[in-house]
Amino acid sequence: MTRGLLLAALCGLTACQRHAPETATADRVHYLVGDAWHAGANWFYPRETFDLHATCVATVGRFHDGQVLADGVVFHTGLLTGGHQTLQLPSVVQVTNLLNGRRITLRLDDRGPADPARGLELSPEAARLLGASGPTPVAIDEDSGWSQALARRLGGGDGTLAAAPVGVVSVESLPPPGSALPTAVTEAATAARPDDSATAYPDRPPPGPVQMPVGPVAYVIDGGSFSDRRYAVNFAQRIGGRFTGSGGRRPSFEVIAGPYARLDEAEAALDLARRVGLTGARLTVEQ
Questions:
Q1: Which residue from 19, 24, 48, 83 has the fewest beta carbons nearer than 10 Å?
Q2: How much is the average pLDDT of 266-280?
């Protein structure tokens, strides 16, 4: 057997083999936070967050019928869904297209996008409702109640428990020896538990859309924060940006570059920030 044929045979049996993406026909939905993951040199660190408010650039993802998303949902054409790099799954967010003001309510079921210059992945149907045909500046506002209801329903979440019953207890004087003790009388109502029912919080929320005000947008690079002013000064100079913040008992200095009127300018600035060592730099949007 020639060397080429031998290598081909070994590749067919081992790591050279390409595996097709997982497909299925029925949902196997589960709660997911997950481990850190990376795409090339870019690392992302999922965490449980129920109050996310952020801006970013969204992209239209490549989904296909039968694709199993990160939380077990099976994708089909027309499904309104999306992906986020770090949020627990599933999560419910309001997404606003900052160019035209369209806002939809969206359940996120997948991880992505892998590109650090993009912060949200949209299914084709979500992109259609938002009027987004390509990279689009958006605002993301998490629906805390909805996200926590889904988390608890699937066995995850922050573990918050309803408050213990609170009441005013009145007890009569003790009876003679040998008699039964009196029963305490609770006068106040039991504190209400969160309503996690499918009636209050359906598994998949109605999308909208609704129309919001529109204004000019600009792109800004968030280079991260430092407790040492010297590092902030150094990185700000290297990316042609600036730093804000102050010292004190808990010093914090933010490195920022921009604003940029054009997305391609902001993407070039983000690339520079990552090259000089700001590996957690993010592309954000101001309006």
A1: 19
A2: 95
pLDDT for 167 equals 38
19-214: which CATH architecture? Beta Barrel (2.40)
Least confident of 220-234, 238-252, 254-268: 238-252
Q: What is the CATH number of domain 218-286?
A: 3.30.70.1070
Instruction: Decide if 253 contacts 244 (C-beta within 8 A).
Output: yes
Q: What is the DSSP string of the chain?
A: --HHHHHHHHHHHSTTPPPPPPB-SS-----B----EEETTEEE-----S--EEEEEEEE----TTBBPTTSPBP-TT---EEESSS-BSEEEEEEETTT-EEEEEEEEEE----TT--EEE-HHHHHHHT-SSSEEEEEEE-HHHHHHHHHHTT-S----PPPP---EE-PPPPPTTSPPPPPEE-SPPPPPP---TTTS-SS-----EE------EEEEEEEEESSHHHHHHHHHHTT-EEEEE-SSS-EEEEEEEEESSHHHHHHHHHHHHHTT-TT-EEEEE-
Q: Which residues belong to CATH 3.30.70.1070 in the chain?
A: 218-286
Whether residue 92 has pLDDT greater than 50: yes
State what percent of residues in the chain have pLDDT above 70: 76
- How far apart are the C-alpha atoms of 215 and 249, rounded to whole Å? 38
Residue 146 burial by Cβ neighbours in a 10 Å radius (0-12, 13-18, 19+): buried
The boundaries of every CATH 2.40.40.10 domain in the chain are 19-214
Average pLDDT over residues 121-132: 97
Residue 25's pLDDT is what? 59
pLDDT digits (tens, 9 = 90+) for 232-257: 999 999 999 999 988 788 899 999 99
